[in-house]
Design brief:
The complex is a heterodimer of chains A (221) and B (314). With 221 residues, chain A is mostly helical. Chain A is built from 10 helices and 2 strands; from the N terminus they run ααααααααββαα. Chain A has a two-stranded antiparallel sheet with strand order 1-2. In chain A, helix 2 packs antiparallel against helix 3. The two termini of chain A are 22 Å apart. In chain B, strands 3, 4, 7, 8, 9, 11 and 12 form a 7-stranded mixed beta sheet that branches. Chain B has a 5-stranded mixed beta sheet with strand order 2-1-10-5-6. Classes of the chains: A mainly alpha (221), B alpha+beta (314). Bound molecules: protoporphyrin IX containing FE (HEM).
């Protein structure tokens, strides 16, 4: 009885996550149809897809530590779909840039990539995310074994590149922190927490603490 | 439907469209509209043909570029004292109080003086200027401003011989500006021009756009417009203008001098780490267009920068 209830709840969470992941795209499509993307639609879509990609990437990276600390192993299942959605939004982000904004004008696109470090960082992150996406199938995972695990650790490099890209994409000066840095700094903070939680001492202690505080209450009846 | 006839109207070759010309053209267009569209609009009240801001886009700038829609001009603005979101600033700025208002002009001048808003509006003949506005973020607009050349105001206070630069300061009203106390920006917003740039006839103090007083988000009640420089030079809601001997500190140049030069002349040859400066998105158009050197005003202002290396002094 208890077991079945738990499985049902997990299933609902799964549905919720997939629905949630398609909602931003639905929102964009509806906004586009209603001519509601603002006065600079390219900018709106670039920012929207960029932020969506960052959010799904960070959510994906949070799964493993959350599963460990809260002793909820099934949370790990969401790591892969969330990562794939991150790649999807990053792909849309790049498509908006290359096709919509620059009309696939390769010399212009190339000059942007070559001259703007933040674009280069974004491109590196995108390449990693896409490689991980196309190698994410179970069969490949089984075939490659340890190599696959190492390859997929590149997701942490991608996350660092993405945060750097984000910090450089907003207007201001990073060194004096004068500018529009609230959102990218929150993202950087989340990534930092994820990294800290992967340090054994930290997650073991947290796990212990969580185990203690979540002990079943004595029955008062 | 209303846009069509405007396209066939010949474009004045003048960089500055004199107001009477602009208005005749406008009237002419209205009459054209009444004749041409009369049949279609037979059922409408005549009032429907009155041009309300936003519905009519008469005329174009000197290069034949159509005016940017009123809704975009007033709905897509950078005004960081309110918010960094360009599309919500119009709501947040609605209650900004601009009357009474005064602008203090001081520093190295013979006649330091505080102008009330009424003195600014009635003391200087307001004229129409249709200018391209190029933002450093890589977008641009064509805006019909009302205002008057800054040199007219400076001539009243008479800069002394030591005055070399003009420093401008925006209003900073924490109670009315949501972002005023942000630690992320060294407000109040400040800008500056070299005196000869400030005296140039293209440099105006704008008090209106599209034949109505400036909306708060566009820098009410009085702002600077320097059409050959990136938009951030055109400081909004000015409360103080000081004549000074040295180059004054300016907000974006203080934050990131390597990205935002003091001169900030529109220059497709000086790239920016974030945005393409070789091309731009004209609001209302799809695709990119080439950015013009000095935003297309090089002929008028080029002499100001003779002998300067504009890739060094950007
Ligand atoms: C070749 C690859 C990429 C290119 C060319 C690119 C390009 C851009 C550009 C031009 C902007 C500035 C948009 C604007 O403010 O107008 C931007 C912002 C951004 N990008 Fe990318 N990007 C790339 C990859 C990525 C990836 C892989 C991610 C995340 C997974 C990402 C996330 C973001 C975010 C979060 C922003 C900031 C949005 C904001 O201002 O709120 N980008 N990108």
């Amino acid at each position: 009885m208890v077991k079945r209830g738990k499985a049902g709840w997990q299933k609902w969470l799964q549905v919720f996550i997939h629905a949630g992941a398609w909602l931003p795209i639905a929102y964009l499509v509806i906004s586009a149809l209603l001519n509601n993307l603002g006065f600079n639609p390219v900018e709106t879509v670039m920012r929207f897809t960029g932020r969506a990609a960052v959010i799904f990437l960070l959510l994906s990276l949070t799964c493993t530590p959350a599963a460990q600390v809260f002793k909820l192993p099934w949370v790990k299942k969401f790591r892969k779909p969330l990562g794939l959605y991150a790649a999807l939004y990053a792909g849309l982000h790049f498509a908006a840039f290359a096709i919509w904004d620059y009309g696939f004008n390769l010399p212009l696109i190339w000059s942007e990539i070559a001259n703007k470090p933040f674009i280069l960082l974004g491109l590196a992150a995108l390449v990693i995310l896409l490689v991980l996406a196309v190698t994410s199938f179970k069969t490949i995972q089984r075939k490659w074994g340890k190599g696959w695990v190492w390859l997929h650790r590149l997701v942490y490099a991608a996350a660092l590149l993405v945060i750097a890209h984000y910090l450089l994409a907003v207007k201001g000066d990073l060194f004096s922190l004068q500018g529009a840095y609230t959102a990218p700094l929150i993202a950087a903070g989340v990534l930092l927490v994820v990294f800290l939680l992967r340090i054994p001492v930290i997650y073991r202690n947290l796990k212990k603490w969580w185990g203690r505080s979540s002990k079943p209450e004595p029955d008062l009846d | 439907m209303e846009q069509k006839p405007y396209r066939s109207i010949p474009i004045s070759p003048e960089e500055i469209t004199p107001k009477h010309l602009y208005q005749t053209r406008r009237q002419f267009l209205k009459q054209m509209g009444i004749v041409g569209l009369g049949a279609f609009l037979a059922g409408c009240a005549p009032g429907a043909l009155e041009s309300t801001p936003g519905t009519a886009a008469p005329g174009s700038d000197a290069l034949g570029d159509a005016l940017t829609d009123y809704d975009a001009v007033t709905g897509y603005c950078n005004f960081y004292e309110f918010t960094t979101n360009k599309e919500t600033v119009d709501d947040l700025a609605q209650d900004f109080i601009t009357q009474p208002w005064s602008v203090t002009v001081d520093g190295l001048v013979e006649n330091p003086r505080t102008f009330s808003l009424d003195e600014i509006l009635s003391g200087f003949e307001q004229e129409e200027r249709i200018y391209r506005m190029r933002c450093v973020e890589g977008w641009s607009m064509v805006i019909p401003w009302q205002g008057f050349p800054l040199h007219k105001l400076l001539e009243e206070v008479q800069p002394t011989d030591e005055a070399r630069f003009v420093a401008f300061t925006s209003a900073l009203v924490p109670g009315q500006m949501e972002n005023a106390n942000s630690d992320l920006f060294p407000f109040p917003y400040r800008e500056g021009l070299r005196l000869d740039e400030a005296m140039h006839d293209l440099t105006i103090l704008a008090t209106g756009l599209y034949d109505e007083p400036l909306p708060p988000q566009n820098g009410a009640p009085v702002r600077l417009v320097v059409p050959w420089k990136y938009g951030f030079k055109s400081i909004k809601s000015i409360v103080r203008i000081s004549l000074v001997p040295d180059q004054p500190p300016t907000l974006w140049n203080t934050i990131a001098p390597q990205e935002y030069g003091f001169y900030a002349n529109v220059n497709p040859n000086v790239d920016h780490p974030r945005w393409s400066q070789a091309t731009e998105r004209r609001i209302g158009e799809t695709g990119r267009r080439e950015t013009l050197f000095m935003n297309g005003y090089a002929e008028a202002v080029g002499s100001l920068y003779e002998g300067m290396d504009l890739t060094e002094q950007y």
